[in-house]
Amino acid sequence: MENVLRPAAVVCAALLLTLLAGRLLDLLLRRADARHSETPLWGLLRRCVPPFRLVLATAAVQAAYRPAHVLPAHAGAVGHVLTLVQIASTAWLLVRIATAVVDSAYARYAASAPDDARVRRVRTQVALIQRALTAVAVVVAAAAMLLTFPAMRTLGASVLASAGVLGIVAGIAAQASLGNLFAGLQIAFGDTVRIGDTVVVDKEWGTVEEITLTFLVVRTWDERRITMPVSYFTSKPYENWSRGGSQMTGTVLWHLDHSAPVALMRDKLAEVLKDLPEWDGRTGGLAVTDTTPSTIVVRAVVTAKDAGDLWTLRCAVREQLIAWLAAEHPHTLPRVTAPEAAPRD
């Protein structure tokens, strides 16, 4: 009976200590978050409570299981398992703390930075740095857990001796993966493409939704997701409509009869633009840019704050000007003259 009650008592005491400490930590972080509303750090640190509880519980059981003679016949196995859990939970806690600090710094920067392009650049770098730190923490924790096994320590010398050959073989086998990894780092710090940029890749127009160390996701205008390796953006040409700022300029073309009232169209364009919220007020002009034996080409130049508003603006201007011409000047719309039928004998 004692062999059952003693382990149960140790486990219950560790759980009680963990719950009390976790509750106290959460309460302190909640009060700090309420007092310091200028930074989200304390609220983000509340995500660290679960791994903190696991670290504390494991440490408490490790400190008490040997003096309490818990499972003395399996003390080595119990200690080994607790060590593995301690390593994994510590890595989890460190990743959560680093993520909270980085997210807090980014949130404060985004709230005070006036340049949206700069904010998206920092967001891209932060996302990739977080993934890199998480990957490093996982690798280090896995290596530390493997080294707790005596067989792995015995093989350490031979592994180090063959590390050079294995590194060359692994590099050749994972050439594409390593290329994507370095391309991801180049994108993060080279500022070539950022999360939220409007791009055209393989004749597909969309917005960069996610960037990792190995792949990139573009969300198209019809809600499809195109996933491609990040090396594409370092080795092939593509259009980045957000490069240098999100403001954009677009054109609207009409093919009209030579008698089209260009001056009246210019006035009507100014009237239409004033009623469209997508127009940012920078540019709104109209001119004849080309002529053919049967028509003239009239081009309007309009501007908007981003690619989405520009698309809506161009469609609205095209529709309203055509409707106005059809109602007020129908003779200016191009007409197709059918050839006369040959007279019958």
Verbal overview:
By secondary structure, the chain is of the alpha+beta class. The chain folds into three domains: 2-112, no CATH class; 176-240, SH3 type barrels (Roll), CATH 2.30.30.60; 248-332, Alpha-Beta Plaits (2-Layer Sandwich). The protein has helices spanning 2-35, 41-45, 49-65, 75-112, 116-147, 150-154, 156-161, 163-173, 175-190, 232-235, 262-274, 307-328; strands at 198-201, 204-211, 215-220, 225-229, 239-240, 248-256, 279-291, 296-304. A five-stranded antiparallel β-sheet has the order 4-3-2-1-5. A three-stranded antiparallel β-sheet has the order 6-8-7, with helices on one face. A hairpin with a 4-residue loop joins strand 7 and strand 8. The radius of gyration is 33 Å and the shape is elongated.
Give the strand line-up of the largest sheet: 4-3-2-1-5
The count of strands amounts to 8
Count up the domains.
3
The helix fraction, in percent, is: 55-70%
Order of helices and strands: HHHHHHHHHEEEEHEEHEEH
Major beta sheet, specifics?
5 strands, antiparallel
**Counting H and I runs of at least 4 residues, what is the number of helices?**
12
Task: Please give a handful of descriptors for the protein shown.
345 residues, alpha+beta, SH3 type barrels, Alpha-Beta Plaits, 3 domains, five-stranded antiparallel β-sheet, three-stranded antiparallel β-sheet, 12 helices, 59% helix, 16% strand, elongated
Secondary-structure blueprint:
Elements: H1 2-35, H2 41-45, H3 49-65, H4 75-112, H5 116-147, H6 150-154, H7 156-161, H8 163-173, H9 175-190, E1 198-201, E2 204-211, E3 215-220, E4 225-229, H10 232-235, E5 239-240, E6 248-256, H11 262-274, E7 279-291, E8 296-304, H12 307-328
Antiparallel strand pairs: 1-2, 1-5, 2-3, 3-4, 6-8, 7-8
